[in-house]
Amino acid sequence: MNAASPEVLSALRACVGEDRVLVDAGALEHYGRDWTRVHPAAPLAVVLPGSVGEVQALVRLALERQLALVPSGGRTGLSGGAVACQGEVVVALDRINQITDFNPVDRTVRCGAGVVTAQLQAFAQERELFYPVDFASSGSSQIGGNIATNAGGIKVIRHGMTRDWVAGLKLVTGTGELLDLNRGLVKNNAGYDLRQLVVGAEGTLGIIVEATMRLARPPQDLAVLVLAVADMAAVMRVLEAYQSAMDLQAFEFFSELALQKVVAHQGLQRPFDTVAPFYALLEVERGSAADMEQAMALFEHCAEQGWVLDGVVSQSVAQAQALWRLREDISETISRWTPYKNDISTTIARVPDFLAEIEAVVNEAYPDFEIVWFGHIGDGNVHLNVLKPDALPMAEFQQRCSEVSRWVFEIVQRYEGSISAEHGVGLLKKAYLHYSRSPLEIQIMRQIKQVFDPAGIMNPGKIFDA
C-alpha cells in the first residue's frame, strides 16, 4: 500500500484538524478492519471528524482528489462492511457522539452517528424509557453503524430491527450534500421514504451523521426460561405454543455444543443436568402473577407433548442475566477458533427443514469439524459456525469452507431465504448476492447508488462491485 502524500495529509488535516488524521500503523490496523479477519487492513489514513460540516468537507475533498471513503462505527460487523483494504480513507465517527433534543412526548432523541448503542440504552433507562435493539456488541457498536447494517439482535421477535426505531436521519451523500430525511415524523407519505433506503445500505450511499431514534415503554419484570428441547421441530412447536398465548420479548436457540463451549470457557454453570440436542431461551414479561402462571402452564403442556425435556425459569435479575449469558456469550467464546460464520434466514415455519438440509450438507463436507448452531430463531434467523481446528492452517480452512458456501446458499435460494439475515453483505458475501436478489434487483441497487454516489467514492466494493 502506498503511503498518503504530504499534500493529501495536509488537505485532510485542513478538514478535521491537525491531530485528527492518523497514519501510524497501529491506528491503521485498528480502524481499518471490523471483527472479520479475512481481509488485511490497509487504509491510506484515518480521519476523525467532529461535526457534520467536517464530514461534508471530507467528502468534497474526496471527490476532488478521487479518494475512496469507508465510514467506520464500532467496527463490530461480521461481513467486512467496514474493512478498508484498498488504500481508502477511513472516516471514523467516534467524535460525533452527542445525544440531544430528547422529546418525552414523541419519545424520540437525536443521536450523533458515533453514539454507542449501550449509551443510548442507558440514556433511555435514566428517563424510564427503553431502547430495545440489543445484541452482544452493544457496548462498542455505534448507532450510525447499527443503522447502516440494520442491526437486529435478540429482541427482534418483539421489537423488530433497527429500521423500526429510526424516526429520521441525516446523510452526507457522495456529492457532499446533506439530506435530512423524515425529520422524526410518525406519518409521512409525501413520496419515497429515502430514510428506509439508507437503512441497511452499509455506507454505500453516503455517511450517516445523525439519527432521530424512537424510544419505548420499558418491559416490566422480565423472566427468562431456558428449555431443553428434543429436536429442531420441537423448538418450533414450543415457539408456536408460547407465541399463541403470550407476547414474547425474545426467543433464541443454541445447540448442545454451543452450551458446552460457553460453560467450559466462560465459567458458567449448565442450567440443569439434562442434555439435549438444542435449547430454547425465552424472555417474557412478568407483569402479573397470571403471566407466570400462563408461562408455566405452557411449559407443562410442551413437556407433556414430549417437546421439552427439562427447563428452568429465572427467580432473580442475577439469575436471568446468568441464563442470558448462555446464549449471549457464544460468539465471544467461539471466536478463539476463528469460525467460518453464516447468518442465514428463511420464513419461520420452514426453519426446521431448512436447518436440517444445511446441517446434512455441512456435516458431509466437514465430518472432522465442530459445528455450532445458534440464532434468533423466533424471526427465522440461524447462525452457522464451523470451528477451525487448531492444527489446520487458516488459508486451508477458509478454502475448505468457501467450497461449501455455494451449496449452503443454493439451499437458501431454494427456501427463498436470505444469505445475510442481519450481518449485511459487505465484502464477504457479495459474490453470493444473486442467491437472494434477482438480476433486476441488483441492477436497480446499482442505479440507486449511482444517484447518491455518482463518483463511486462511498465504501466502494461493498455489497457489489461498481
TrEMBL record:
Catalyzed chemical reaction(s): (R)-2-hydroxyglutarate + A = 2-oxoglutarate + AH2
Keyword Flavoprotein part of the UniProt annotation: yes
InterPro entries, per database record: FAD-bd_oxidored_4_C, FAD-bd_PCMH, FAD-bd_PCMH-like_sf, FAD-bd_PCMH_sub1, FAD-bd_PCMH_sub2, FAD-linked_Oxase-like_C, FAD-oxidored/transferase_4, Oxid_FAD_bind_N
Catalytic activity, EC: 1.1.99.39
GO function terms (MF aspect): (R)-2-hydroxyglutarate dehydrogenase activity; FAD binding; metal ion binding
The keyword Endoplasmic reticulum is annotated on this UniProt entry: no
Assembly notes: Homodimer.
The protein, known as: D-2-hydroxyglutarate dehydrogenase
Organism: Kineobactrum salinum
